């Protein structure tokens, strides 16, 4: 069997390098009407290399009827002959063929020929599985499993993908434990000795391949709803990208900010803050926002400006959620059974605060921290601007609120009402929610009322201008929230009035204005639920069941809170109130499944539906006797 001459081997290497250039560089310039032109050209070169290797290596030389001894001799000859200028290590020929099968698999996958891609990738894996894992082939072991894992995940076969990717992870861990030396990169099988990679470059490429393994596993675990595992793998992926300087700043920052939202849902605010601080620092590595003048001069600069501004605004929104959830979680811990601040619980939590902070700081040391020598200090400085512990009083809550409000302003600079209507409204809703959360900690009713007035001032204009035909869901949300805010303001004004010996006329007018405004917006919300022929549905959809019944219940209560000296008006208002209470009772009687969603409101409605008729009788009797 003839061996490859040095000139023949050089030709194969040149073809291989040309195929890489076509696939990775020139393919990006392919026209839209022929998007895979360079990939197809690369494929032809890879097929030629495979054919040559088969010809010289005796890949297909096993003739029918050969005995085991003859086959073994040929396999040994194959392993010895494919080399430039002499003998090869055992398994080198298989590795070279494996590389070509791997590249063909990637090529077919990238040109959307998944079955052919799977076949070549599995050829590579089966070929390599005959050999022990070594410094020469470990990268190929891992990269082939990465690719087949991605292919199966794309087909929705998540558990199959999981098996290949976890196998790649296990191979990496075993190799690092048993050997750990910088391994050969698959491309080096087709390089001249003088072109081989340095150990530093080998390490970088190998660790990059393993980082992809972890990244793909994070997606797999997310799809399998193993969220804790997914979060851990995503965190590790991001850290490794920083460590090996293998990341695009904008993409990395958005991924870190997205990960923060997972930590926030788990009430892990130290970790969430760390992710957001890192995101804010790393997004700065993408460069300054190009000036408007520069953007006008260049379409590329314009696109860069747009993308950078958008990413910064998205990270700002994640910061808003961090601040809002931190205050709201503290509120849930501190409120009593009627939703007011429990002073005893507040005092108890303040006593425990120091111990909890010490434990958290210890826990921090076990967290994989982001950063490098260039970014660590900046991330720490960013973290120090906002607390990660639950606020226990107004001043602590206000400090977090102000940070959130600054990010609201930053987000609104990009997400403006013209062009980003939905995003703009969601940011405004979050701003309103920040005021609502802060108001819980305020014990001065007048100041609390002013906070709710700020909410009205930002929500009501949008509510009036928004076209329900195009924004029905958002319109409903805003109508209900405005109604609820007026309702809370009414309760606060009544609480203030109860402390006065005699109600002044302007106080009465204010209370009645708030009451009627709340009724108006609850009614607008309820009207949006009606059928095209203006009838209220006999059975409400599950997503609007509770809001609708709560709206009916609160309108009933609101009518009973209107202050008037006119007995006829009193009778009219009480009658309206009774009608709404009875609606709640009747609806739940007809729809038994609704009872669980509105237990408290139903119980009070039943009680009021039995008491108000007596009150109406007394009012009517009193009016008759006067007349």
Number of helices: 23
Q: Rg to the nearest angstrom? A: 35 Å
Low-confidence spans: pLDDT under 50, at least 5 residues? Answer: 58-90, 289-297
- According to CATH, the fold-level topology of the domain at 6-59 and 76-264 is Serine Threonine Protein Phosphatase 5, Tetratricopeptide repeat
Structural class: mainly alpha
What percent of residues adopt helix (DSSP H or I)?
over 70%
Sum up the overall morphology in one term. Answer: elongated
Strand content: under 5%
Q: What's the CATH first level of the domain at 6-59 and 76-264?
A: Mainly Alpha
* Assembly level: single chain
Quick one: biggest sheet? none
CATH architecture of the domain at 6-59 and 76-264: Alpha Horseshoe
What's the pLDDT, averaged over the residues?
88
Amino- and carboxy-terminal Cα gap: 125 Å
Compressed to H and E, one letter per element, the order equals HHHHHHHHHHHHHHHHHHHHHHH
Task: Kindly report the name of the CATH homologous superfamily of the domain at 6-59 and 76-264.
Answer: Tetratricopeptide repeat domain
Number of strands: 0
Protein name: KIF-binding protein
Family: Belongs to the KIF-binding protein family.
Organism: Acipenser oxyrinchus oxyrinchus
Keywords: Cytoplasm, Cytoskeleton
